Amino acid sequence: MLSLETLFQLFLAALLGGAIGLEREYQRKEAGLRTYILVCLGAALFTIIGVEIFNSFGGTKSHDLIRIIQAVAIGVGFIGAGLIVFKESHVQGLTTAAGLWVAAAVGVALGVKLYFQALFTTFLTIGVLAGLRLLEEKLFDQK
Description:
This protein has five helices and two strands. The protein has 143 residues and is mainly α. Strands 1-2 form a two-stranded antiparallel sheet.
């Protein structure tokens, strides 16, 4: 059943996925703003659907929601695998793939109404992506 809370969950998924994607977009990475929004939004929707199905049919099999979460993780794994490339003796796209994986987890958290965990993880992820990149550049002269 569509409710204001469901709309809020989906809106927040788009917002938080976009917040992570904005940093990747700024760095001109393979996956940017739209990709992160779509991954987080899709993960949230799949999870919301799972919760609704679970609730509609009596909720007798708790492992069904876990299967949906596993499917989201596997699906994002395929997307991430497509981003990772070995080029000129180094790996590219690994951090972007890991960021998409976290964005999917944020979407799942929103789908099961773990709002604080989703917000905290988003801020922590942005801190890791932006803050540690600056630290790496200073310590290791990387760009």
